[in-house]
Amino acid sequence: MSDSRPDLVIYGSPVSPFVRKVAGVCITKGVDYEVEAINVFDPPAWFLEISPMKRIPVLRDRSVAEEGMAGTIADSSAICAFIEKKHPAPALYPDDPMALGTALFIEEYADTALAMAGGLGIFRPIFFAVSKGEAPGLEKARDAWANQLPPVFDVLETRLGGRDYFAGDALSIADIAVATVLMQISLVAETPLERWPGLAAHFAAMQALPAIAEPYAAAETIIRKALPAPFDLT
After folding, report:
1. Burial track 122-145 (b if 16+ CB lie within 10 A, e otherwise)
2. Are both 137 and 187 inside the same structural domain?
3. Are residues 81 and 121 in the same domain?
4. Which of 52, 136, 141, 173 lies deepest, with the highest CB count within 10 Å?
5. Chain segment 104-121, per-residue pLDDT in tens
6. CA 170, CA 164: separation in Å to the nearest integer?
7. How many CB atoms lie within 10 A of CB 73?
8. DSSP-H helix ranges across the chain
9. Is residue 106 a part of any domain in this protein?
């Protein structure tokens, strides 16, 4: 009997925006994958070998090796670049040098500035508390929405410049990265973006894509068990 399992395994959880970023790249490219759950707070010993910083996601390419460090890549940006190289169509990294540099910068900005303000500032104070049976940290979350996120949204609005995409004239890793982190916020809080109309339009368009919607649905199924509805932070 042939092995029908996909070559690519994403170790992590769909609750992570970085896991969803990798999943979104796979879906866009029509590449089969599976997600194997890992508890980063109590990871198995074998996972520490392939992710010494205890971070998710880690990718395994079974066509290279089924166990051990061989065939694994840690860090979502490195993983996405690997998938692009192995499955180049449709391209998610622009050919034009300036557009490529822009895409990589926006991806990094989403993974750092946006993820810090939205993930550490809003998602964690709400969901981590609720999942432990504690009151959500709404004061911290409201401060993040009112004070930390607006400057980040300003940068994204300016960089988008009224265009459909952040880099070039087609979907790129930049668009997927921004959308997956914004949707991390929307898992626990409403995200009114009227002050940033270009970003709002971009986010709405991204939410309609299977690459964004399908991994988000998997995350929402988990989140709604502890949190029935997002909070209004305004």
Report:
1. bbbbbbebbeeeeebbbebbbbbb
2. yes
3. no
4. 173
5. 999 999 999 999 999 999
6. 8
7. 19
8. 17-29, 45-50, 76-86, 97-109, 115, 129-131, 138-143, 149-160, 173-186, 197-207, 210-223
9. yes
